[in-house]
Design a protein that fits this description.
Blueprint (H helix, E strand, L loop, with lengths): L10 H9 L5 H5 L3 H6 L4 H14 L7 H9 L3 E2 L4 H6 L4 E2 L2 E7 L5 H11 L12 E6 L6 H10 L4 H6 L1 E5 L3 H15 L4 E7 L3 H6 L6 H23 L2 E7 L4 H4 L9 H7 L2 E7 L4 E7 L7 E8 L2 E4 L5
Parallel strand pairs: 3-7, 3-8, 4-5, 4-6, 6-7
Antiparallel strand pairs: 1-2, 8-9, 9-10, 10-11
Helix pairs in contact: 7-8, 10-12, 12-14
The protein binds guanosine-5'-triphosphate and magnesium ion.
């Protein structure tokens, strides 16, 4: 069903909705009245449209069995490392946001690249036979690196690149817009992974100074909300966001694992993984504050072929 088939949605309203990224009935059903008011709709119209969308999807109460079925549709994407998969409960999950945070060079971007390749793998190899969207805010997306990783998995390097839609975000507003635009892509291309690398860098650069902190957190929070409600949930997509932690004197004396985006980011992501550089190519991953998995640590390696288990010999 298309959004203009919903009762209460005329041509003009449909256009407004699409422009704001509400391109599917699912995304409208998951919206709040205030969110639609921000698009420029009146109160009554917003209420009417949301309930029409929910009715058409038979949303409201569901049985425990329905919940179970939805949970069964959750997919997992292999990271390339068995240990890291195990830490995450079998890989990176769809219908969830996984936040990778750590200092520069800790492997956040490398994992983002690897997942964009791995999501394309057949299901029996740990993939979801889907495509990826990569929102690149730091200009660190490297097609050559994707080709290397694809070759290592015996995938066609150029086909693999074709299945990754890269959006280069020039500032935080553009980043927000790209995520909203992604809603138009995901159905057509069977997108099963969205990487936002980095979630926080533009916000951090643009909202400096004490007075702007609350606004920054609010914007990041809303952005995360869009990712969860307009993309991850309705389309069964795994969302992976990166967040750089800097070593700052004030953090030195407190918790060194506090991410730049602050606790707001932490609260909205389902899984939070702290990454740390170790000897050579080795990296340490620690799962923090997970709702359903035990906290724990593992070691993996960043190699020429991509993310791998650490060689147990050394
Ligand atoms: P920031 O974005 O700066 O916060 O860092 P990040 O966490 O995204 O780091 P990234 O994932 O870019 O990791 C970069 C590191 O990965 C490099 O310092 C290398 O150690 C490693 N790396 C990248 N490419 C290769 C490769 O082809 N071979 C090997 N062995 N290591 C690589
Ligand atoms: Mg990076």
């Amino acid at each position: 069903m298309e959004i203009d088939e919903l009762s209460g949605v005329g041509e003009k309203v449909a256009e407004k909705l699409r422009e704001a990224g509400y391109s599917s009935v699912e995304s409208i059903a998951a919206a709040s009245v205030n969110e639609l008011k921000d698009v420029g709709l009146g109160d009554t119209v917003a209420v009417k449209i949301i309930s029409a969308a929910r009715d058409s999807l038979k949303m409201g109460f569901e049985t425990g069995l329905d919940v179970l079925k939805r949970r069964e549709s959750v997919g997992k994407i292999t990271t390339g490392s068995k240990e890291l998969n195990k830490l995450l409960g079998n890989g990176v999950e769809t219908q969830a946001i996984t936040e990778l945070f750590g200092m520069f060079g800790s492997g956040k971007t490398q994992i983002g690249h690897q997942l964009s390749v791995n999501v394309q793998l057949p299901k029996n190899k740990g993939g979801l036979e889907g495509t990826a969207v990569y929102i690149d805010t730091e200009n660190t997306f490297r097609p050559e690196r994707i080709q290397q990783m694809a070759k290592a998995l015996k995938l066609d390097p150029d086909e693999t690149l074709k299945n990754i839609h890269v959006g280069r975000a020039y500032n935080s507003d553009h980043q927000i817009l790209l995520v909203e635009k992604a809603a138009e892509l995901v159905k057509e291309y069977n997108t099963r992974l969205i990487v936002v690398d980095s979630l926080t860098s533009h916000f951090r650069a643009e909202y400096t100074g004490r007075g702007t902190l609350a606004e920054r957190q609010q914007k990041i929070n809303r952005h995360m909300h869009t990712l969860q409600r307009k993309l991850s949930d309705p389309f069964n997509i795994a969302v992976v966001v990166t967040n750089q932690v800097m070593s700052r004197p004030d953090i030195f004396f407190g918790d060194p694992t506090v991410p730049i985006g602050g606790h707001i980011v932490g609260h909205t992501s389902t899984y939070r993984v702290y990454l740390k550089k170790s000897k050579g190519d080795k990296r340490i991953a620690r799962l923090i504050d997970s709702p359903n998995l035990p906290e724990g640590e593992c070691i993996f390696e960043v190699t020429g072929d991509g993310i791998k288990d650490a060689d147990s010999k050394d």
